[in-house]
């Protein structure tokens, strides 16, 4: 599984950032290190939230604290503009190979017994700013296939994928065309263990908070709503259900990568 | 037939008294510990969420039980229902950002209780004010230290335990890294703060990853409220002497001390050169946590629970 997570592929560059890098490389690197750590924390938190469902005794206090942490990170990312800026950059970028392609943390594969994706909370060492390796971005399917950062948003934009083509394809791993410049850190073994015997049934994220003893709600979890709407697609309203298949994601990725 | 230890065989048959030539006495034999707890009464379905506290009132007639979102009041004589006195469940569960973490009745004022929250606040409520104590009489909260702000600030501010002092003038709260003593007359900040394991502050991300940051430690007062105690990792527990401003770290483990031996104080080396007998932060065992501690109300006898064992310690007898 680990081999599949980071297969060889096209290197991506953040061509827009190259100028900034030259001008102010130190501060950018410090900032980007912080940004990466923050992103890593965000990813870790989202995984934890999802795993809450798998606990025999879901812990409401823990879930609330983790959700609040996610909200804080997202608010900060919205405030310092790191999030919309990225989106803009990505949207204007025409070269498909420069797009950031990533996997979807919260979406589960369909129940066809596909292989479980694993996520690594990778610590990024020695990464250059022009190369952002995000394994947590999502692709939503509009015509231009914009890419959204960070993963949390993609998670709850699944309904966009649902609307699009239902081309059934065998689901490969979603990580697609990543190439790592520096050796990837070993994915956290504890996370692998956590996923090793997880079943593939879907866990509605908002039932994490509502479904401890209540009936699962279908309403959206407010995390998305608290974010700036500049980047989000029109229909960020529906629930967090990630029932859409990664088949569609794969299909889209193929288009992007041009393979 | 007369009953007696020597008058029956092993299988229960009666022995002929004239055949009894020696007396046997009961012998104490070591055997596996068997603990059997039998419930006397079960109050089912009173709580929708996990119960975190129960507290008997000083009137010895009522008690409370608290879960993540609600607190119920019970009367010992009324066994078919309880009365909801606090409810913080939002209309829309997606708006939930705070839960109740602990609750306790005041030791002397039977109308007063406190409850703590996951955001580091303590609310003191007076049951005479209203049937539903949604409005607190007092709100205890310490403003956040901006220099220590991080994404983990809220989590480590979550209060895991609240305990009134025996004299009822103070209350103690335990959050992830510290123990705070509050004067009930001052809501703005605690009067005393004791760092339990400040060396963990730089490790919060790892502790978040391995979930240790969600561990709920208890705390307790000694009989005369001069010393407070709480647990930590590596089977360490800490005592803070409020009067003498001294603190000590001790270890509850069979490997580190024999029964009846005086416990040797421990020291954790936070950084820099590790002295002899000091333990470095990185070699602490985070699976060995002491979450529950208790202090005898009159004597200097303490009970400390590790994962699998209960230790009872007492003052050195002179």
TrEMBL record, chain B:
Coiled coil: none annotated. It comes from the Eukaryota. PROSITE patterns: PR55_2. Gene3D superfamilies: YVTN repeat-like/Quinoprotein amine dehydrogenase (2.130.10.10). The keyword Repeat applies. The keyword Hydrolase does not apply. SUPFAM superfamilies: WD40 repeat-like. Keywords: Repeat, WD repeat. Belongs to the phosphatase 2A regulatory subunit B family. This is Serine/threonine-protein phosphatase 2A 55 kDa regulatory subunit B. It comes from Polypterus senegalus (Senegal bichir).
